[in-house]
Amino acid sequence: MAASIKKSSSRPITVKLKHTGLVFGLMDADNLAGKINAMIGKSGTNVQIQSGELAKLAIMRYLSGDMPGGINSIEQFASTLPANLFASSETCEGNPYLHANRYSLSDMLDRIAEYGPTKFSTEILSSLVDKNSITTAHLDSTSYHFHGHPQYNLVEIANENSKEPTEIVDVLPDNPISLAHGYSRDNRSDLPQVNHLGISARVDGVDTAVMLYQAAFDGNMNDNTRFQKFCADGELDYLKQAYPNMKTLVADSAAANALTVKACHECGIELVTRLSDSRVKKDFDKVHSGIVPLSTVEVPVPAWAKAGTKPDNISYAWLGTQELKSKDGGSVEVLKIMFVAESMRELKTASIKRRAEKELKDIEAKLAKLVTVPRSCEADAKRDFEEFTKKLKYVTVSEPQYEEIKGYAKAGRPSANAEKVVTGVKVHAKAAINEDEVSSAIERELYYVIATTNLSTELTEENALNLYQVYHGQSDIESQWKELKATGTFFDSIYLHSERRIRALLSIVTIALFYARKLITCVRRALEKHGLSLSLHNEPDCSRPTLKTFLRFASGEREDSDMLISKGLVWLPDDIETSILYLVALEIGDEAVKFYTEDFYLKHSEFIYNAIVDMRTAFKESRVSEN
Length: 627
Description:
By secondary structure, the chain is α+β, with helices and mostly antiparallel strands.
């Protein structure tokens, strides 16, 4: 077809299809746009692009792997895609790319905020999975920083003299939140943040866990409080209604409190959580001393593990029950089991040693400052020295030597009989890693205690293995936070300095994460079916790629997906049907395959071509006017 290009025809334009067709194919197969339009769609002749199409565009933006500018550059991003992916020549007046702008996307976020971001994402996600297949879910939270000003939003309080409430609050947490400073998982405690609660589970059709529920919460609220609210204020019950076969909820030690346990009991949910080390010191001593013997069980090799992977052996000991007390004087009991992950010794050793080396480096820098910046007196020197040494974990510091610095009390030329006085005090001390403490810390890291609220659990090897596997599924949701942050967010877009829009954006990002996991499942299955692997520059071939690896591959590093398009002309690479992108599209189905055929674009070629040309002309004119 390339040979049919004539000089008299419009000069063809190159459009990089990349993995766009795969993502749009997955969304079209689920009728995502139709579902979103039914919830927050707009009507009227002035509507050029519906909310469902804008949501798909935002999801594609998130999964593009390249996000500078966020929503502020959404028009430019849209213009890299064929216009018929999100707009129709029959209903869209003017250039479709100009309608897919930050204003229309912000309006969509406002509509989601009005609908309720948590309700919106939960209803969408529950419609995309087999609800009855979910029996175990994992609860966790993370935080996202942004370079805006803190916003302390307070829910309006009803007038005390009024008998009627001013607002009926739903069980879902869609009230305003505070974008505030708090404990940062991003290591950016200097910036305000929003916290994000999530529930994930394994579902049929996706090889990895996916998020089922999300809710933003105050940036300065801790996990203990938020997890209690989730379990006790109706959210857990709401989730149980959406997924009726859910029997087990797994969470970290922030959920190990009486109120959370009681709330789970009332919902008919077994809670599996970790007990903090401070709560089980006596149990550690009993196991270390041999009073409580350890048993061993073999952990089967996961289906996704590499060929030749050997099974792990873990040690465990049932520890009986423990009472958790609440502030109101009530209490509940949980059943405890200790695990020793000997197979993790190498990783834990490396991790603890890194922490020790970092602590040593920090302490040496502080000690050096006590020499280069003398304190005004010995009392101040002792106070500052003791202030940072009392917090040491892996480092010891030698007894300090205090050196008095003498000088003249007044500046300038001293008088003949002037005497020198103490003008400052230096502190000399040496720091070193405490090897005994490092060894003890490594041992403590290998031992941990899990608790279950199911007190009738039989103390068998089978149930010990089951609890071990269930709790270690917590890494499923933790990996999703990492994946989400590695891809990036839109939070620093200027039009998102609003807690309402940030809450709405989190619902879109959560849905995008679902499609990211569904996409990588299809990629891995296609590679396995055809005995293929991805090849990147200067890296070993990969048959089970991560999302980040696949995005690099699909973006053109090794795969040619460039399409030439003009009025009445479309040309795709001759080998497109043998490409990995096409094979993945076949794995998804006809909804994705069509995006890698010339016919799909040919009937809209004039619409696509004119829109791209007009948009590029508009960009050039705007740059000229700015200069």
